[in-house]
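#structure-requests
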Amino acid sequence: MVDSSLHLNTIAIKDAALADKFALAADCGFGALEMWVHDAAPHLMTEADWQFAQSRLLVRRITESRPGSNMETARRLAEQHRLGIAGLIPGIDIVVRWHDSLDDDMMKSLAGTVDA
């Protein structure tokens, strides 16, 4: 029985191959995976992201031959196992870059309305 509200965070099975993560989630009745960026889009990770992931999260470094190939594989595996992808959890450096970009965009949009 599949519980569509039950999501498996892939960091819980970090040493498994991507295909095995999908198979395990489907076999255990999960409705979706919450994927980390190192699983789905390793080409987006900086060296700082990889250093954090390897030292703090204890994940192995993933190399791929072309950008987007893991995302396409994840989409195919999700369809094959009838699972959703509930979200993409970013790496630390990616979050910092996104947050800095958001701050810059926010300040530009508020220009003239806030004394900064």
